[in-house]
Amino acid sequence: MEKEKCKICDRDSNAFHYGVCDFFKFSAKHVLQANCCNACKMFFRRVITFKTPLKACSLKEECFDGATKNFGCRLCRFQKCVTAGMIHNQETITLSTTLVLLSQMEFDKRDTLENRQSFKEITFEEATDVAPVKFILKSSGQVFDCSDWERMHQITIIDYLKRHNISRMLTAADLKAFLKGSYVYSAILSLAMHDYSLKSGFIKFPEGVDVLPKEMSVILAAKSELEIGIKCRLIGRLAELQVTNEEFLFLSMIFVCNPAVAGISKSGAILLSSYQQLYSNLLFKYCQTTHQNLAPTRFTDLLSLSHVVAKTKQDIASAVLLLKFYKPDFGFRKFSKAQLNVC
């Protein structure tokens, strides 16, 4: 009997691995089982455990599109694995194990924010590089103002995103584009969810520090709706939907895995889209376990939070522009200047 071809490299295959499917033609509920050779299976396993990003392709990311395959290009081979559905069908990705992992990462992120500080003053560009941010314990008695907490929060979020497996599967250029395009959404949702869990009606930094600088008071006096929008809108919607911590963890990953971020490559967009679909599937499965027949409605309501986060981000950008106009001498730190250009 003639052997089937590996869906990745077109070589003879005699084993089925990682539930390979035609990702663009079949949903997660209709997985087309197809063969994947042992070599591609092992290659995929190695890549998802890499601690450094993949090297960029020098041939327009088309090394595995034709009849002749360039096995020297890890990026294109990995991209082929992703489009074949390997991300969706790893045996280790389950509802329970993913929740445990995300919960621990969220706990570590908050612990870093509240109890540590960056080892040295770093720029926004340095924070979005491949290397992890170095933290040290916060000095006893040290007091942070709004600007300090804002900078520390953004650095913590960026470092947190770097620690996800997806970041190690991106090239250095795609990683930077991913971090710049996604960290704001993660930061806004994370801050709001933490204060909502404490039954607070507005977002604030640790130690009760206001998220808006005191220099903005003259602006907010004339535009109170801007302050309400930034501090209260998202928490209000979280409370209205009674969002659980589990739903928040999945939503956070769905929002940050945006394949449309500026500057992302084709392979980067495919990877982000694949992970976004993966977390969407897990969230829907969670909704099925908690809301049964009402799962589709619950799932849609939760996804609608993306519009609230986007509106909050827009309000923050408007407030900053007004501050720059009314207070042109306001001393934005170097880190803040660079990140505001991204926002």
TrEMBL record:
SUPFAM superfamilies: Glucocorticoid receptor-like (DNA-binding domain), Nuclear receptor ligand-binding domain. Gene3D superfamilies: Erythroid Transcription Factor GATA-1, subunit A (3.30.50.10), Retinoid X Receptor (1.10.565.10). PROSITE patterns: NR_LBD, NUCLEAR_REC_DBD_2. Keywords: DNA-binding, Metal-binding, Nucleus, Receptor, Transcription, Transcription regulation, Zinc, Zinc-finger. It comes from the Eukaryota. GO terms for molecular function: DNA-binding transcription factor activity; sequence-specific DNA binding; zinc ion binding. Residues 108-342 form the NR LBD domain. Residues 3-93 form the Nuclear receptor domain. Belongs to the nuclear hormone receptor family. This is Nuclear receptor domain-containing protein. It comes from Caenorhabditis tropicalis.
